[in-house]
User: Which sequence fits this backbone?
């Protein structure tokens, strides 16, 4: 079967009937040789190329039974710290600038490409640009200007402000308080979005309620809620999203103009290849329109309906004014232990990776209590002053616990030797160029770092010379407009293996405490052993995206899964899963790098590498438990215990007396669908959008304080600076 025949069968095209007839007529005009010549490889029936973007993926596996457990949490994440806000997460291969509140929040998949193009010359030079499409686009993505945004402003009569409030109430008469809340809701003309009610062994009741009320009745509703009980905590937030709204509006108008132009060109197409190319572009543009329209609908809904989260607790005596929020959380924590003893259907687990400030909302919402941030940020963390500036900023804004790597350069060995590694997890060393321009290329400097640094050396391991060679090869063969499918070919298995093998050789020569970040290939596993973790001086990790995605996902997700190192084959993914189970890979991390969607546009050579993962990485691992890929015990070991042991994190990673109470509660009977409206990373998108996980993070405790509770982040909580056992890092 030829490609266009397959596409008509599976997609039924988006063309009108007359154009379909035109396509078939064109087909009939082909010579017998042309008819028998496949244009592209026929996709395997088990994994067809056509994928419905909006349909959540569900695996046909029976629901795992309810588990109850409590686990201490210690995080490994690595990420990006940028200018003004902290961006943290799993060892990022890309810098995350401090994204401001007006950064665009939208989710859309970049246009995919067919795998067969690697085996044959690039498909016809036919493109949107060659059609003189006035509204230019790169990979089917709308291009807009400041003028467009300004024009959109005329359609916006008022500022778009999202109001959110969180209140905690106590009441001696629980039923009366509930009735008062119901009456206030009815008076405001709002509705109850969700509720969760609990009771302990002493018959004390509590409930968490999420209300949506019209903006014009917001203030009156808050006043009525405050009268329903004794207010112990109140927080209000107003987010001006006018700029984002105008941005989305302008993009929509631009995409609709593209669609109109493509439809015109569709009517004018005279060749089979032209019609197929236009059809593919039209399908992609329509998909983007739907995605952006969904984003606009979400903004409109959030602006029109304010969110008020209320926690109501039944008490015999009211808390005295001097009683702290922390002490009340301690009481709640004690109550949670009683529930645990009774077998509450919840699981406490942890995950590594984060990014603070507003983005830490995504971290604690995803079950992250601690993170270790990478230095390839804006500005780069390559001096002690920059390192301490990060720590000061985190102290001010971070909800989760924090630690920061110091970055190596060709000439900062003295700085690396002067760092206090009891408060720094180690040195980050780039052996291959990545986003951030922190490549260490001087051979003498590399040997000095491996020989002299008195702490753990964590490496981004890709061979820069091979990367350049591969890039030049594919550009020479196919031109410089390479689609994302070429990314794992440019940053190939050979690129990763050669660099890692050399680093392992140096570490063995100098006795370096070496940690290889984000291993992505099966071949690299040959370089590690599966001895007990505390006996190793050379350790390795794998990230959740390399355990989940394969290169078969590039046509569907495009640049949304472009990372350094690249997502690779099914065989690589399966080998990494086995390597984690067998102990060759020691921990699981995220490589969280929250680039804006605008930075993810363009071809393989232009689009930024990296993406947001901290909010959903624990859910990914629990989904793999459900699929019987991993056991629950293994997830706990690789995401809680092992990170603490590997980095020597003091008094974290285990649920023990004298340890910090970093705990996550997961409801294993509540599905969670990733949607634009529940994505909390500031960049506003996720490669998992549309997917339904079978678990939900209900609560996250940081140092015993309730930092996240059923969809609500407690921004009054502050994490602590992580401490590290330097002897462990030097072992």
Assistant:
């Amino acid at each position: 079967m030829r490609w266009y025949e397959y596409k008509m069968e599976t997609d039924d095209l988006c063309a009108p009937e007359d154009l379909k007839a035109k396509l078939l007529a064109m087909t009939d005009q082909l010579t017998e040789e042309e008819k028998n010549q496949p244009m592209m490889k026929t996709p395997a029936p088990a994994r067809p190329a056509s994928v419905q973007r909006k349909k959540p993926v569900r695996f046909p596996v029976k629901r795992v039974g309810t588990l109850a457990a409590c686990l201490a949490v210690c995080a490994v994440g690595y990420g990006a710290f940028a200018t003004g806000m902290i961006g943290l997460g799993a060892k990022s291969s890309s810098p995350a600038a401090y994204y401001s509140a007006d950064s665009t929040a939208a989710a859309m998949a970049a246009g995919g490409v067919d795998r067969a193009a690697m085996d044959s010359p690039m498909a016809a030079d036919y493109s949107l640009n060659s059609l003189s499409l006035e509204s230019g686009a790169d990979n089917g993505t709308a291009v807009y200007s400041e003028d467009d945004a300004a024009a959109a402003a005329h359609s916006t009569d008022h500022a778009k402000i999202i109001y959110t409030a969180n209140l905690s109430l106590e009441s001696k008469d629980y039923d009366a308080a509930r009735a008062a809340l119901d009456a206030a809701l009815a008076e405001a003309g709002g509705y109850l979005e969700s509720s969760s009610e609990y009771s302990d062994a002493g018959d004390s009741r509590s409930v968490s309620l999420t209300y949506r009320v019209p903006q014009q009745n917001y203030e009156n509703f808050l006043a009525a809620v405050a009268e329903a009980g004794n207010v112990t905590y109140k927080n209000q937030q107003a987010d001006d999203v006018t700029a984002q709204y105008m941005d989305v509006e302008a993009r929509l108008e631009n995409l609709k103009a593209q669609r109109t132009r493509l439809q015109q060109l569709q009517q004018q197409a005279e060749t089979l290849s032209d019609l197929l190319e236009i059809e593919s572009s039209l399908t992609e543009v329509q998909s983007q329109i739907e995605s952006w329209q969904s984003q606009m609908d979400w903004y409109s809904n959030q602006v029109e309906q304010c969110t008020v989260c209320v926690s109501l607790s039944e008490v015999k005596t009211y808390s005295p004014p001097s009683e702290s929020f922390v002490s009340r959380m301690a009481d709640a924590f004690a109550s949670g232990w009683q529930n645990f003893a009774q077998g509450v259907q919840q699981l406490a687990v942890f995950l590594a990776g984060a990014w603070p400030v507003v983005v830490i909302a995504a971290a604690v919402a995803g079950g992250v209590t601690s993170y270790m941030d990478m230095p390839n940020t804006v500005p780069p963390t390559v001096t002690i002053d920059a390192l301490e500036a990060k720590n000061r900023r985190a102290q001010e804004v971070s909800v989760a616990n924090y630690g920061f790597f110091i970055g190596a350069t060709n000439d900062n060995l003295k700085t690396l030797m002067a760092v206090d590694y009891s408060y720094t997890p180690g040195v980050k060393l780039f052996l291959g160029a990545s986003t951030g321009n922190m490549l260490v290329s001087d051979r003498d400097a590399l040997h000095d770092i491996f020989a002299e640094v008195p702490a753990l050396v964590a490496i981004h391991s890709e061979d820069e010379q091979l990367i350049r060679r591969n890039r030049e090869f594919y550009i020479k063969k196919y031109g410089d407009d390479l689609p994302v499918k070429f990314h794992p070919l440019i940053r190939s298995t050979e690129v990763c293996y050669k660099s890692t093998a050399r680093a392992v050789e140096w570490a063995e020569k100098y006795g370096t405490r070496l940690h290889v970040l984000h291993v992505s290939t099966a071949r690299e596993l040959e370089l590690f052993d599966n001895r007990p973790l505390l006996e190793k001086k050379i350790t390795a990790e794998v990230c959740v995206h390399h355990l989940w995605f394969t290169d078969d996902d590039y046509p569907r997700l495009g640049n949304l899964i472009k990372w350094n190192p690249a997502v690779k084959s099914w065989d690589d993914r399966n080998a990494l899963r086995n390597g984690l189970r067998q102990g060759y890979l020691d921990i699981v991390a995220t490589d969280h790098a929250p680039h804006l969607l605008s930075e993810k546009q363009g071809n393989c050579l232009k689009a930024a590498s990296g993406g947001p993962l901290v909010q959903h990485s624990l859910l990914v691992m629990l989904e793999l438990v459900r699929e019987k890929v991993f056991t629950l015990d293994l997830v706990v070991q690789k995401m809680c215990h092992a990170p603490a042991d590997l980095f020597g994190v003091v008094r974290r990673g285990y649920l023990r007396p004298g340890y910090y109470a970093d705990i996550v509660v997961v409801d294993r009977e509540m599905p969670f669908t990733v949607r634009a409206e529940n994505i909390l990373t500031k960049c506003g998108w996720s490669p998992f959008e549309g997917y339904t996980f079978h678990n939900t993070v209900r609560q996250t405790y940081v140092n015993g304080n309730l930092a996240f509770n059923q969809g609500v982040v407690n921004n009054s909580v502050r994490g602590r600076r992580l401490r590290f056992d330097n002897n462990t890092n030097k072992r």
Observations:
- DSSP finds 22 helices and 22 strands in the chain.
- The longest helix spans residues 272-304.
